[in-house]
């Protein structure tokens, strides 16, 4: 975007050699309402650049960004693949941030298939793939080839999203209470949802460590959902780069009284369209508002199209049938975490069952989750 003229008496503009129309210069330099209207069409990355033009524009940018508070997602699949030098998700994220993302992300959750996102000599275990979707499009279960998504959370009033990461230390397997409290997992009456993932769980002792971490907060009235994945690629890891053989637990905690959430478990008996839809009806019965809500699907790598007698996209299509406007994200992994549980409104927490730790960990299942982030203002 080309800067036109100065910014009135607000300072910061360079008027030398300007050939702009004087009236346009006056409008863009003095009328905040017009400037703000124009800036609403720019993506956040461009807004951050033009905020340096002058004080007026800087204040307008601040107000515009304050109105852009909806969760945004970027997804990439087979149609975006084909460039050997980089994963399709990396390229698509770079393009979308430059052109179409209007929020200022505070937290980003990104997932991709491991065999192409990580170099072949570092890859371990099964391929991880991503059911992706949007509020308008059919979500896709991608079992072969490049795929991935990035879920971008802005700062949301009344809601706190905190990442956590615990690396297994063979010399000290004890987690101190203050470590859990610092990331909102303990001593937090507003904790509602925990997305939790164990990585490199094929390593000796990794699964036990995952269960040990989760046992600290699994008996609380909160939603737990997640699974076991191949590897972690963390841009905020305390250790750079993360050891390829490291194991640990990573995730996000969601706190805030406005949050409502529910999960259902699709066990091994759920093996056709009819039983899948029955499970979605249980999720629907939780009465979670669908506006400003995101869906998650954490499935066993063995529950793809072969599990449903060579029919693909069964679980994602069933989700779309009952929740047509809710975007769906997730992966096929090596183990699932969750159960049937509801955390819903009026500050009342409901737990479907008294769940033992052992009943939270599954194989050949799917966990479906809804997270409502409160009514948009």
Automatic annotation (TrEMBL):
One of its GO terms (biological process) is protein polyubiquitination. Residues 1-10 have a biased composition (Gly residues). Residues 206-340 form the FIST C-domain domain. Residues 1-21 are annotated as: Disordered. SUPFAM superfamilies: F-box domain. InterPro entries: F-box-like_dom_sf (IPR036047), F-box_dom (IPR001810), FIST_C (IPR019494). It comes from the Eukaryota. PANTHER family: F-BOX ONLY PROTEIN 22. This is F-box only protein 22 isoform X3.
């Amino acid at each position: 975007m080309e800067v036109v003229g100065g910014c009135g008496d607000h300072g910061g503009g360079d008027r030398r050699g300007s050939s702009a129309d004087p009236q346009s210069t006056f409008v863009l330099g003095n009328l905040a309402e017009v400037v703000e209207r124009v800036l609403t069409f720019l993506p956040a990355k461009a807004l951050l650049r033009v905020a340096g033009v002058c004080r007026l524009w800087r204040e307008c940018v601040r107000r515009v960004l304050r109105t852009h508070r909806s969760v945004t997602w970027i997804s990439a699949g087979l149609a975006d693949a084909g460039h050997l030098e980089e994963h399709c998700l990396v390229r698509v994220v770079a393009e979308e941030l430059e052109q179409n993302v209007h929020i200022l992300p505070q937290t980003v959750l990104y997932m991709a298939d491991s065999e192409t996102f990580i170099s072949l000599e570092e890859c371990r275990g099964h391929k991880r793939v991503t059911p992706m979707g949007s509020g308008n499009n059919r979500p896709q279960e991608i079992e072969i080839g490049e795929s991935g998504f990035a879920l971008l959370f802005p700062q949301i009033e009344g809601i706190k999203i905190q990442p956590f990461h615990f690396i297994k230390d063979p010399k000290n397997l004890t987690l101190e209470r203050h470590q859990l409290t610092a990331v909102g997992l303990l001593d937090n009456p507003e904790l509602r949802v925990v997305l939790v993932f164990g990585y490199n769980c094929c390593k000796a002792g990794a699964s036990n460590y995952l269960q040990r971490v989760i046992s600290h907060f699994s008996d609380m009235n909160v939603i737990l959902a997640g699974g076991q994945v191949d590897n972690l690629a963390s841009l905020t890891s305390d250790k750079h780069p993360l050891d390829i053989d490291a194991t640990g637990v990573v995730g996000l905690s969601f706190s805030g009284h406005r949050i409502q959430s529910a999960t259902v478990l699709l066990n091994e008996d759920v093996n056709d369209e009819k039983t899948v839809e029955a499970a979605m009806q249980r999720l629907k019965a939780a009465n979670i508002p669908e506006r400003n809500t995101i869906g998650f699907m954490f499935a066993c790598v063995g529950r793809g199209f072969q599990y449903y007698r060579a029919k693909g996209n069964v679980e994602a299509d069933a989700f779309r049938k009952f929740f047509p406007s809710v975007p769906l994200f997730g992966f096929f992994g090596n183990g699932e975490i969750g159960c049937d549980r509801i955390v819903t409104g009026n500050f009342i927490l409901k737990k479907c069952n008294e769940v033992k730790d052992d009943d939270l960990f599954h194989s050949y299942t799917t966990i479906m989750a809804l997270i409502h982030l409160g009514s948009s203002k």
